[in-house]
Every structure is written in C-alpha cells, then in structure tokens.
Specification:
With 88 residues, this protein is an alpha+beta fold. It is built from one helix and three strands. A hairpin with a 2-residue loop joins strand 2 and strand 3.
C-alpha cells in the first residue's frame, strides 16, 4: 500500500514538473543565447538541440542540460546531466 502511494505521488510530481517546464519554455527567447558560441567551463546550460544524424540514432536529447568542460572555437564538450547515471 505504501509503495503504491509513493508511485502515485511520484507520477503526479513528474507530471507537474513537465507541465511547468512546458509553460516556462513558451516564454524563453531561444535566440537570446547560443550555447555553441557563448558557453563557459563549469556553467550549466540547457538549449534546444537537433541531432544531425537523428535518423541513425536510437534516441537523442532534444533539450540537453550540459556542464561544459572543454571549449573550442566551433563548440564544446560537456557532460549532459540527463545521461548521468545514478546508483540504485
């Protein structure tokens, strides 16, 4: 019984979070920031991404949340927190 209540609360929490994210994303000016030209090491960046080879990928992150650790003239390398695993 307790596990069922937790799962129900978790589902409601996730639904609320994604609804809030959808509402907030409508107000964002995505042209105000360009993560490929404005990132800095240690920053936390979310941006819209369209994979060039998406037809060959099993999945890809359309809205990555990244901490850059190497900056180049044409982009950066960083850790996408959406792909970070956690111990269970």
């Amino acid at each position: 019984m307790v596990a069922i209540k937790r799962d129900r609360h978790k589902k409601k929490g996730l639904e609320w979070f994604f609804n809030e994210l959808r509402k907030a994303s409508k107000d964002i000016n995505y042209n105000a920031y360009n993560p490929t030209s404005d990132p800095f090491i240690g920053g936390l960046f979310a941006y819209l991404y369209d994979a060039k080879t998406k037809d060959k990928l099993p999945y890809w992150d359309k809205l990555p949340l990244v901490i850059p650790f190497n900056i180049y003239d044409d982009g950066f390398i960083g850790i996408n927190l959406h792909y970070a695993s956690r111990k269970r």
